[in-house]
Amino acid sequence: MKLVFTFLCAGAVVFMLRFLAALSREGKLSPQPIKVYFAKFNPAKRRGELIVMNSRNNVRKSAVETAKRAAFLAMSAAVLTLPLHGQHTANEAASDASASAKQQPSETSPQTQQEIVQELAAMKQRIAQLEAALKQHAADDKSSTAVQTANADPPVALSTTTAPSGAEALLPQTAKPEKPPKEEPFAFADWTWLNGNARTKTPAFDSKFFTPEIRADIDYIYDLNHPKDDTIGGSSEVFRSNEFHVTQLGVGGDFHYDNVRAHLMTQFGLYSVTTPRNDASPARGQWDLANAYRYVSEAYGGYHFNALHGINVDAGIFMSYVGLFSYYNFDNWAYQPSYVSSNTPWFFNGMRIQIFPTAHLKIEPWIINGWQSYGRFNNRLGIGGQILWRPNGWLSILGNQYALGEDALNTPGRVRYHTDDSIEVKYYDHPENFLSKAAFSLTGDLGCEHGGGVSCYGNSAKGPKQDFIGFMFYNRLWFHKDLYGLTLGGGKINNPGRYLVLLPPINGANAASGTPYFTENPGDPYKAWDLSETFDYMPSQYITFRWEFDHRAANVPYFSGKNGITPPLGNTGAPGSVVAGFTPDLVKDENRFDLAILVKF
């Protein structure tokens, strides 16, 4: 039995040593390199992961040490068993001598003991090899961990601490936090409720290089004056009655790449002829500026500087937003804006710099050719600027200023000043109710001209008073999750010099030609007021169906009457010239219904 026990112990030792050798060859005894995670995890979480990982490594090392100790214990037991086994064999022979004097000891016992001794020697040698291999693996793992720590990005200093379980953990020092990106200007709120601002929340299509834009404005105007030539005057938005017309069709969009920016919006339809005819500057000089820019409403290029909260430098033709209402009726609460907006510039031609000191403020200086003009009227450029402040999501304050432009054709020295200021307030916002939102806008304008035979401060030796004062107020209600909209509003102006009054197109008259049938001389008074009621159906953010009633009135005959403002045989002679036997039918008031389909992608 002793001999059997010895063989079993030796066999167990051999099996264990071979098992450990196999594990060593497969690399399973070597601790895995320690992985250190950086940016995506907090220090406390990293510390826990490292403790667990090192605990596992320590467990593996402990298992190796335990196996080695077991091997030595088994070897020791086998060695100690050998003399006991020899002594037992001798005693057995002595005790059995009397029974069988001729009995001989087993012939295989000396040979078996010799084999065991040789096997133990081989095992000692193998254990020595395994110890050397384990030391080499430990050295390689330490080197690998040091290399990974040195190459980590960002570099993090490591320190060791003792966990309650006795495991070691590597703790990274807190890295210096990166500076957060600056907030986008006015991105803190939804501004689609504003008058003069498009209500589309997401573009129909977008890409890294180009964001397209498509606009369509088709209307049908029913004028209760029923002018027989279907011609409407005194408006920069409505031009023909009792007919369907494309007021504006625009295709374009925004180009943007590597801080370079450009914007284009074409204009086809009535806007392509009505807007240029209100600009007298093409009459000074050559190259027919009215036709050169006829089919373009916006076109500019520029660069975005990553300073403050952004700085844009643009040059070209861009919207002015003097008078709050947008040039595009889709963006507005009403189709026919009041005189303060309808009689002031829709565009400027020049250069602007948009500066965003904070995410709530924009400061925008202008250097421009003149007051809604493709070119200069005389020998001086105009200057101006805009300040837009939105402290929160329900308040917007806008100021537009203009100065120093000489904007009367062939009248050098007559200098214009103008201030246009608006406030918009969203005073109710409960989308869960049938009445979803409510807001109002209030705009006030002051302006004047001096020099060149007129005065800002009243009739004097310098000339008659030439100033402008006006206001407009609109209140907007949204219903049933913004599916419907209702706007009530209107305004009033007083312009004793008529310098901002739109000229009626009598016998084809335009801003450069003028007309003897409605003069624009300094000292000719003009006062007007209007009221409107607008109902919108908005089944999608990209379309508006609009119904509107407008009442407009003036202190002098100004609007188209029943007999119209076109000579019986059509336009005769030069634009705006006198036609013998013809008198335009001008009346003091106008009532009409406006129906429109407005689209924007």
Give a nutshell description of this structure.
The protein is α+β, with helices and mostly antiparallel strands and 601 residues long.
Per DSSP E runs of 2 or more residues, the count of β-strands stands at 20
Helix segment tally: 6
Question: Which value, in Å, is the CA radius of gyration?
Answer: 46 Å
- The helix-strand sequence is HHHEEEEEHHEEHEEEEEEEEEEEEE
Strand order of the largest sheet: 3-4-5-6-7-8-9-10-11-12-13-14-15-16-17-20
Distance between the termini: 97 Å
Question: Which key terms come to mind for this protein?
Answer:
601 residues; alpha+beta; 16-stranded antiparallel beta barrel; two-stranded antiparallel sheet
Topology of this protein?
Layout: H1 2-26, H2 43-95, H3 109-151, E1 158-162, E2 168-172, E3 210-223, E4 244-257, E5 260-266, H4 271-277, H5 289-292, E6 296-305, E7 311-319, H6 339-342, E8 347-358, E9 361-368, E10 382-392, E11 395-405, E12 415-429, E13 435-450, E14 467-479, E15 484-494, E16 527-540, E17 543-554, E18 559-560, E19 586-587, E20 589-600
Helix pairs in contact: 1-2, 1-3, 2-3
Q: What this model shows, in words?
A:
The chain is built from six helices and 20 strands. The N and C termini lie far apart (97 Å). The N terminus is likely disordered.
